[in-house]
Design a protein that fits this description.
The complex is a heterodimer of chains A (559) and B (108).
Chain A lengths: L22 H26 L4 H6 L3 H10 L4 H14 L5 H25 L4 H8 L2 H34 L3 H49 L2 H9 L24 H19 L1 H8 L4 H32 L14 H9 L4 H37 L5 H27 L4 H25 L7 H21 L8 H26 L20 H5 L7 H21 L1
Helix pairs in contact in A: 1-8, 1-14, 3-8, 3-12, 4-12, 4-16, 5-10, 5-12, 5-20, 6-7, 7-8, 7-14, 7-15, 7-16, 7-17, 8-9, 8-12, 8-13, 8-14, 8-15, 9-12, 10-16, 10-18, 11-12, 12-13, 12-20, 14-15, 16-17, 16-18, 17-18
Chain B lengths: L8 H12 L2 H21 L3 H6 L5 H22 L7 H14 L8
Classes of the chains: A mainly alpha (559), B mainly alpha (108).
Chain lengths: 559, 108
Amino acid sequence: MAFTATTFSNVEAAAGLRLSLNGLDLALIVIYFTFVIGIGFALRRLITTSTDFFLSGRSLPAWITGIAFISANLGAIEILGMSASGAQYGISIVHYYWIGAVPAMVFLGIVMMPFYYGSRVRSVPEYLHRRYDRKTHLVNALIFVLSSVLIAGVNLYALSAVLEALLGIPLAAAIVVSALFVLSYIMLGGLSSAIYNEVMQFFVICAGLIPVVIVALKESGGISGLFAKLGTSGHDFTSAWGGVGLGGHNPVGDWISLVFGLSFCLSFGYWTTNFAEVQRAMSAKDDNSARLTPIVGAFPKAIIPLGIIIPGMAAVLLIPGLGEGGGLPFNDAIPALMNKYLPTGVLGVAITGLLAAFMAGMAANVSSFNAVWTYDIWQIYIRPGRPDSYYLRVGRITTVVGVFVGILTAFIAAGYNNIANYLQTLFSFFNVPIFLAFIVGMVWRKAGRGSGFWGMIVGTLVSFGTWVLYKQGVVSFRSDLAETQWGAIFGFSTGLIAMLIATIFSPPKPISELKGLVLGMQEQDVQASAHVPLYKSPVVLGTAALVLCALLYAYIAVV
Amino acid sequence: MAAKVELTREEARNWRLAKLFDLRTFIGALFVIFGILVTIPGISASQDAINKAAGINLGLWVGVIMLAIGVFFLSWVLLKPPAPVTTAEAEAARKAREEFGTQGPAHH
């Protein structure tokens, strides 16, 4: 064992992480969750006074809405998953940020947002419904429901893993306890307090994460010292672009799969069609703010890997046995570092931040599952035309069902030593085909009515088939991550062919129905964007975000 | 606010609540409490605690910085409170949100 629990001698915990918190740390956790529940009650009271509490949100500057945009995504994926990937694959994981998320967010802000905002659609499924047909809408809604319960399971697993380390109870029990906890939190606080919690949690997680980064770097002699010590630990562990040639050994992928798979298919697919992310930007007060929201979020997004991937790599050095048989799984990299280095009080803040982040992630997925299931599936295809109170009741029941399905999917996530790999696998199945239907429908006005449906079906099946063949050992890739990238490329290109064939057999939509939905016919709010000062221009700020990524690449190459 | 708006008693009460329940109030209060609780063990940090964190007195640093952030958010909400909202405006915004918000996509 790398570290010893100070308060308990836990023989059983040989395979698991055991956090050593004292009374003060636990008190901080209790205070935080008292706040969360208090906010739920407070906001409920405001609703009864019929004052619009969201208006006070409108007085917040764009940088706060940008933070909300980022923290909607800063859950288990980032903190456990990406640090686990840093520990497993090394510095090349920064590609997921610097050629992945950041360019995708800039693309969303500059190119896609005018379509969303101008066409007045309220959700991704609605866009596909108007652009294609009912079948496309149904298959999109079903794919979304499936992926959100699977991702809710990842968050639930992460929450349970921390709880397991906190209380020393078996993982299965921790999963059930966490699920009941999240359920009561959603029922009590509702969606409004979830948004408050998202922003609060961002500050708390920073207060816990930044000290870990500083101490881990000091222990390993700065970034240059860390890279020097890790330079011997394998192929291209400390070089982002080393070994990306087709015959190379970079564990993340080769340049084709990085540029087309990771960047174009996976990252653009995730950031431009993700329900939760896009809706946050769409709720902005005007056209330019909506475009700026993802771009403002791109700046912290570019910095975040330094606080997540670098400590993950440092954990390889500082937590002996990480990721090896008998040692801790890669997922435990960050909690183990926190436990080893943070003193009383600071440790409590850090663990609070982790718990809050995972709970927020779970709550976000359950509530979006809920919305799509109730309004896009139940109301349209199963029981249409009932009064609003009926659907409200369906929504409540769906929340309970969603949490319990989440328990089952949490056990799937628990089977992965590195949850980031699992998530990228899910994204390659689900997000890429949706992105395909979206982007083709947007740029090619002749794409037929039924082509979106066939593109999504074929794309999903091919991505899934690639993964099955890889797991059966029929085809091989250099790593699990490289499989997700190639799976995404295969899914995208075969789906594209399916769309072309389907277009031959199904008539294009009349031009009158495509208004605002297709390139060249978008309805832009020109007046709002025309006279913005330079520092509020989406193009200028977006370019600055891309330049920042290039500088960061240069920095880690020379350090 | 440029134009002074006459508020009814109920609107004034709602405005007080809106200030109290502003997100910045919550973040400020939480960070002040956390800051104090983390600073206290930091002031009297044992050598063991300092050694644990690679020779840095993390409790003191993190505690004081959190306290400062908390004070910043509280003074922000005091110096720049949310604008008062009349019942008519709130009603209009609520309607707009109902149409745009949780009702899901409108289908044709």
